[in-house]
Predict the structure.
Amino acid sequence: VLWRRGEEKAKYEWLHNSWSQVNVSADELKETLSRLLSANEVLSGEATIEHLVDEHASSIFVRIANKMIEISEILRDNITKDELIPAASLVVTVGVILAGGYLMSYLVKLEEENVQKTLGAKGLKVDRKGKVVPELKIHELRAETYNGMIRLLKPGCRTIVLIVDRESKDKLVAKFYKHAWPFRRNKTLMFGFMYIEKGLSWYKKILNLTLPEPRDIKINPKNCIGTVLSLNGHRRYFCMYHAKHPEATRRPGYYTSSGAFMGFDSENDSSDAEDIERAKPAVAPVLDSPDHLPIFEDQLLDGLQNWMDRLFEGSTYRYHVNYWPEFPISPSTWNTK
């Protein structure tokens, strides 16, 4: 007698007599069943049933195929052509919508890549929110770009130029880029750099134009490295930054007359005081530190950020020129890095 108690458990009990045609076996079976049907009686034995595998059962692929055939037969017997056509059109419509959505997303992705490439060529990029973020470009000041960067500037626009040489260009321009990055959204500013080997004669000319009387200025090109010029092409003036210039450090007690710095004269023109755009100009003295400590290349632009803040406040000294001199044309054999 077996009693299944679960998938893997079973209760059982053996009959004492073997089954035969006599009434003894039948009577014993009836007595045992009557006893087990009472609430207090249970089967004496217990066994664990192992997992049984039907070796003659069909494989899963055969069962799937048979199920599909069965479904097709049911549909063929119960569904007419008038009912099949709307269902098929619905399935096709859903498929076309899904395919169209995928195609549209793919085309939008291609369009975004093209827009980013186009904006990247113009110095712009798009952030995650879809807003256009301008990238900062540092242009080289040379004869070909001189008119666009200085002479033909619109009113209110300025060009900030860093003076470098071929050896210091990579290091100084990278640091100059970091200082100029906060002003990348300002449409009135243009940033650039100039090789002193190319523009030394032009640099001498604009310095000479700021003097009351022209004279020969002897300039060591190495001392010009790290100088930053803010040039206003329309108003014809420029401001200057250098690590040893007093506007860059502002240390008290180390000031001399402005004529000691790169040939500048300390006398102010009376007409400059009437310049409405300038805010209370002060005499531009020069820093003459008594310790004469050298300034290393990586320290040349340490004070540039503070100087730029004063530049936009209008408190830096302005050197006016009557005209912008021609920029020298570099020989074709001059190679830049």
